[in-house]
Design a protein that fits this description.
Layout (H helix, E strand, L loop, with lengths): L5 H11 L4 H8 L3 H8 L7 H9 L5 H5 L17 E2 L2 H4 L9 E5 L3 H4 L2 E7 L15 E8 L1 E6 L2 E6 L3 E5 L4 E4 L6 E8 L4
Antiparallel strand pairs: 1-2, 2-3, 3-9, 4-7, 4-9, 5-6, 5-8
Helix pairs in contact: 2-3, 2-4
Organism: Allorhizobium borbori
InterPro entries: Cro/C1-type_HTH, Cupin_2, Lambda_DNA-bd_dom_sf, RmlC-like_jellyroll, RmlC_Cupin_sf, TransReg_Diox_bact_type
Protein name: Transcriptional regulator with XRE-family HTH domain
């Protein structure tokens, strides 16, 4: 895969939106220094951090990583048709342990529904900063096990187990096992 300049792309989108780094930091609720570090490629954001920053511009991860991808009326999808939301995020980080792979079915915004095939390597974690967004989400663990935290509730879910919650509740996903975890999830309205 070609190297993807996460920092350069973020800066380009921020400037196109007419925002200063401070404006974007305020809109997304992240420290100004974090925006600066990412734009200069001195820091690589987690999936959760990047999503929070993009939310300050009302941009999805699909739009961020695949700006030229056009919407289609496709009903059926082959693996090569799915939208990779994370591989390019990790392409600049050789030392990354516990990667998360998120692959989306079709154009989530067009259908107001995001369906993801998620893979969590051992040690993968959406981050200590809990995720919150105005949606509802649910999923089924297909393989391995994943620790899911929603508010004050924590559970380790294994293959066949499922979850469903209001995404406005702070939440986090972690693979604390030594095997890959696979989850199929849905979120409406789309978050990533």
């Amino acid at each position: 895969m070609d190297d993807f300049d996460v920092g350069g792309r973020l800066k380009e989108m921020r400037l196109t939106a007419g925002l200063s780094q401070r404006d974007l930091a305020k809109a997304s609720g992240v420290p100004h220094g974090q925006i600066s570090m990412i734009e200069t490629n001195k820091s690589s954001p987690s999936v959760a951090s990047l999503r929070k920053i993009l939310g300050g511009m009302s941009v999805t991860m699909s739009e961020f990583f695949e700006p030229d991808r056009t919407s289609t009326n496709a009903v059926f999808f082959k693996p090569q048709d799915l939208r990779d939301l994370t591989t390019r995020l990790y392409s600049m980080r050789e030392d990354t342990v516990g990667r998360i792979s998120l692959v989306q079915v079709g154009d989530a915004r067009a259908h107001n529904l995001q369906i993801l095939h998620e893979r969590y390597e051992p040690g993968a974690d959406t981050g200590e900063a809990m995720i919150e967004h105005p949606s509802s989400e649910g999923g089924i663990v297909i393989a391995g096990e994943i620790e899911v935290t929603v508010g004050q509730q924590v559970a380790v879910l294994k293959a066949g187990d499922a979850y469903l919650f209001n995404s406005a509740e702070p939440h986090r996903f972690r693979n604390t096992s030594d095997r890959e975890a696979i989850v199929v999830s849905a979120c409406t309205p789309p978050y990533l």
